[in-house]
Amino acid sequence: MIDLYTAPTPNGWKASVMLEETGLPYEVHAIDLMKGQQRAPDYLKINPNGRIPAIVDREEGNFAVFESGAILIYLAEKTGKLMPADAKGRSTVIQWLMFQMGGVGPMMGQANVFYRYLPEKIDLAIKRYQGEVARLFGVLDARLADHQYLAGDYSIADIANWCWARTAAWSGVDTDPFPNMKRWIAEIAERPAAQAGIKVPYDMSALLSSAGSSKEEKTDAFVKQARTLVNTGDAKE
Questions:
Q1: Of 85, 105, 131, 208, whose Cβ has the fewest other Cβ atoms within 10 Å?
Q2: Residue 52: which of 110, 7, 101 has the closest Cα?
Q3: What's the CA gap between 176 and 202, in Å, rounded?
Q4: How confident is the model at residue 225 (pLDDT cuts 50, 70, 90)?
Q5: What are phi and psi of 20, to 5 degrees?
Q6: Residue 41, CB half-sphere, CA atoms under 13 Å: how many?
Q7: How far apart are the first and last CA of the chain?
Q8: Do residues 224 and 34 touch, judged by C-beta distance below 8 A?
């Protein structure tokens, strides 16, 4: 049994989508970022960085893993799924995983901060980070022009990048210039495990896409939680 400590963010969804894909039994422990539960002493014993997600593998002597990319690798190696066994294939997957960890996630997180969350709108910063997100999307789009998935077969590289790329509208970035990426986003969205994973620890989709809600209304519904993410750093990952 895996204990999953998470909140409804792209980094959190990476872990829950992966758990759904592998079929491993897991128990969800929702971390209330608004209440600062990610800074509680008991949680810091699991994740010393005080962010989400984190897992504890009960079968391995309550072995704890933090950092979303490390969780993906651990679960892939534990199950033998969604990671090639050969050195070159494994390296290719990890390269695209690091692309998300070092590029897509941080840049989209910063775009979210300046476009959505800060009360003061700094146009230069918004354009800077949205522009960098668009550049990174261009890299994904070029790769996906002649690849169904990022690194051969569907893998943890796709899970990591998809959980962020699917939220492009929240960062204020148009995906229309990236048809190959849009195809890939839509294809993964049809996977039952992906559909289930993004509803963990609870489903935010109704609020994010509710009919008749303006962008401002949707933003207001999450602004308190979002500002907490800014303060804790999770939004910047």
A1: 85
A2: 7
A3: 29
A4: low
A5: -65, -40
A6: 0
A7: 27
A8: yes
What architecture does CATH give domain 87-236? Answer: Up-down Bundle (1.20)
Cβ–Cβ < 8 Å for 83, 90: yes
CB 196 within 8 A of CB 2: no
Whether the Cβ atoms of residue 136 and residue 171 lie closer than 8 Å to each other: no
Structural element, H or E, at residue 161: helix 156-165
| β partners of residue 4 | 28, 55
Kindly list the domain boundaries of the chain, sorted by start residue. Answer: 2-79, 87-236
Cβ neighbours around 220 below 10 Å, total: 11
The answer to whether the beta carbons of residues 116 and 170 sit under 8 Å apart is yes
Whether the per-residue pLDDT at 30 is higher than 70: the answer is yes
Spatial strand order in the sheet of 26-30: 26-30, 2-6, 54-57, 63-66
Secondary structure (DSSP) of 31-52: --GGGTGGGSHHHHHH-TT--S
Rounded-to-integer distance, Cα 52 and Cα 232, Å: 10
pLDDT in tens, 123-144: 999 999 999 999 999 999 999 9
CATH superfamily of domain region 2-79: Glutaredoxin (3.40.30.10)
